[in-house]
Design a protein that fits this description.
The complex is a heterodimer of chains A (about 130) and B (about 475). Chain A is of the alpha+beta class and about 130 residues long. Chain A is about 25% helix and about 20% strand. The chains are: A alpha+beta (about 130), B alpha/beta (about 475). Bound molecules: S-adenosylmethionine (SAM). S-adenosylmethionine (SAM) binds next to helix 8, strand 9 and strand 12 of chain B. Chain A: It holds the Pfam family Trm112p.
């Protein structure tokens, strides 16, 4: 199902930086799995500077896998290409995956413990219970 | 002429508000834009400073961001008396100003007085006293090519206005600062606010302290209603926030506005605020999370962290945890609300500095408020870390004996990031002392109200000014 007017949505950029390492017994907690119930694809203003500055900070493999796992890798290459700074076409693809594919409802899943973190109205709830610390 | 550049002298004319913040703001902007600048007259109390700057372009850059700045004037002459000013102006080499005195350039002369009102006749007489200037273009009151200004400064004490000004300035208007943004981002018209929303002026000052620029990645780990992120996004930052309060982020807490009845509107959220100001494309995400725990991947690099942590006066300071040891049964899991324990200020600042050291890029900045009891305050006891340098520290007084300080730290090295931050025990005592002092003076209720009011409005009110004498010390009221 595709929502058109929901307000909040989690972005794959945020997913790329998020871990569950705060849990007792979890060491890396990365990358989190994604179970997406509702996905929204929107259009937002492209800013080549932001995208080219953020790319070196990304875990490219995790990004590609996350996009692929929800069926939105599009034609994003599996390997990060060189000299991307001046390749606007490529930067636009990255922009799309990072900022325009958004999850409204679903779950993030800890790769080590299987603990599920709900995403509701686009806001992930990463709170643990007191016995998981 | 220095370095082949045509350095000129400028008057920075400030709004008479948040006095302690303006020089730090200008310093941050100069560092942000890499501007060479020399302070000629650096005033901490009077609403003006004089600087030398190599190019007008640089002046425009500063003015494009400063919220303390009312306007900036290329200073042609100044003096203690109007007569001195005229003499100094007449001494200026004509060639230096020739480019402004051309028949095709329209002009206007404006008279501004600080702390005194003036009749139209007085103003006209003053304007006419400049008739010796070889201005030959037409007078044009609206949008002239050249705007000249005479500013007369009569001091700060409105109960004691002298007959003659203390200082007078004359020059060419170059640019206004960003005071208009303060009303554009006013909390009065903002969709989603709470009782701890930060007023736009201070939020914008924080974004400037953080040197936010186009395309930066910015985090607020105690995001609340996102007022700090609004300011950061206004200056081009891409923003992320976390808060422990699920209901807050979902816009389901009790509404703050009195006129609003029982419920908030359906779409109240940090994101709708961004949308309201046309900066929704800078909004990344907000998450429900406990900032006392690590959340982010070790490779995450932030350009800045901007935050107002909870002080435990208006909002709960809490984190997930329990003093008991037990396991929640499976059948209760889905509806279990995690239990919370006190999250003291000492721990909050420990975690905040740790976050900064681990995730700021080199030269990235942490900008945060810390509440202090004024009598106990001592700069050496502020939270510290070998990788973080305190580059600015401005005070905003809240009550007679408390204030909060806006701290700006810059990450200066990448080596000792594993070391723990130092947070003095006294940091933790703010809350207890706040209430104890409050009782002592039997103004507990009033204090709290005053604090809550000042925190939410965060502008110095007339009442506050009454206690304060010029040196910033307090008279008893
Ligand atoms: C002073 S308020 C910040 C207000 C914010 N600047 C705004 O614009 O609304 C502090 C916030 O910290 C949150 N908070 C308290 N303890 C927390 C924790 N352990 N982790 C994350 N957020 C917490 C509170 O819910 C509150 O929203």
């Amino acid at each position: 199902m595709v929502f058109r007017c929901a307000v909040h949505n989690m972005k794959l950029l945020t997913h790329n930086m998020l871990t569950s390492k705060c849990m007792k017994g979890v060491t890396v907690g990365y990358p989190l799995g994604i179970v997406a119930k509702d996905i929204k694809v929107s259009e937002t203003e492209f800013n080549s500077e932001f995208v080219s500055r953020i790319i070196p900070k990304l875990d490219w493999n995790a990004l590609w896998k996350a996009a692929d796992s929800i069926g939105h890798s599009g034609d994003l290459p599996q390997q990060l290409m060189e000299d991307y700074e001046n390749n606007e076409e490529f930067l636009k693809k990255v922009h799309h995956v990072l900022l325009e594919v958004e999850i409204i409802n679903g779950e993030l899943v800890c790769p080590e413990s299987g603990r599920k973190f709900p995403i509701s109205q686009g806001i992930p709830n990463m709170l643990l219970n007191e016995d998981e610390l | 002429m220095m370095n082949g550049l045509n350095w000129k002298r400028y008057l920075l004319w400030f709004a008479n508000e948040h006095t302690h913040f303006r020089i730090n703001e200008i310093e941050s902007l100069r560092s942000l834009f890499g501007i060479q600048m020399k302070w000629v007259e650096k005033n901490h109390h009077e609403p003006f400073c004089i600087v030398d700057i190599p190019t007008e372009e640089d002046v425009l850059k500063i003015a494009s961001r400063s919220v303390s700045l009312r306007s900036c004037i290329e200073l042609w002459a100044c003096g203690a008396k109007l007569g001195d000013l005229h003499n100094n102006l007449k001494l200026l080499p004509v060639e230096q100003l020739a480019s402004y005195f051309k028949p095709e350039l329209s002009f206007k002369i404006k008279v501004e007085t600080f702390c005194k009102s003036q009749t139209q006749e007085e103003k006209v007489a003053k304007i006419e006293s400049f008739s010796y200037l070889p201005l030959c273009g037409p007078v044009k009151l609206k949008n002239p090519d050249i705007k000249l200004e005479l500013i007369e400064y009569y001091g700060l004490d409105s109960n004691n206005i002298p007959d003659e000004p203390y200082q007078v300035f004359f020059g060419r208007w170059v640019a206004d600062g960003q005071r208009d943004l303060i009303s554009k981002l006013s909390l009065k018209t903002r969709k989603f606010i709470g009782n701890t929303s930060m007023d736009p002026q201070l939020s914008l000052l924080m974004a400037n302290q953080a040197k936010v620029k186009e395309g930066d990645l910015i985090l607020d780990p105690f995001v609340g209603t996102g007022s700090l992120l609004v300011a950061a996004a206004q200056f081009g930052g891409y923003v992320l926030g976390t808060d422990i309060d699920y209901l807050m982020l979902h816009g389901k807490t009790r509404p703050t506005r009195i006129q609003q009845k029982k419920q908030r509107e359906k779409d109240e959220s940090v994101r709708t605020n961004m949308k309201q100001y046309g900066i929704e494309n800078r909004y990344l995400d907000v998450l429900v999370a406990d900032s006392s725990l690590p959340l982010w991947h070790s490779a995450m690099r932030l350009d800045a962290i901007i935050t107002d942590p909870p002080y435990g006066i208006r909002e709960a300071t809490e984190r997930i945890g329990s003093t008991k040891d037990y396991q929640i049964e499976e059948k209760h899991l889905a509806n279990h609300i995690p239990s919370k324990i006190e999250y003291g200020l000492q721990q909050i600042f420990f975690d905040l500095l740790k976050l900064a050291v681990e995730h700021l890029k080199p030269q990235g900045r942490l900008v945060c408020w810390i509440p202090v009891v004024r009598n106990d305050y001592c700069e050496s006891k502020l939270p510290s870390h070998p990788c973080l340098q305190l580059v600015a520290n401005s005070e905003q007084q809240l009550t007679i004996f408390t204030s909060r300080r806006l701290l700006t730290y810059e990450k200066i090295c990448e080596h000792e990031t594993h070391l723990p931050p130092n947070v003095d025990l006294s940091t933790a005592e703010f809350r207890a002392k706040f209430f104890r002092y409050g009782e002592e003076v039997r103004k507990h209720r009033k204090q709290q109200k005053e604090l809550a009011m000042n925190l939410s409005k965060a502008t110095v009110t007339e009442k506050d000014k009454m206690y304060e004498d010029k040196s910033g010390r307090y008279r008893s009221s």
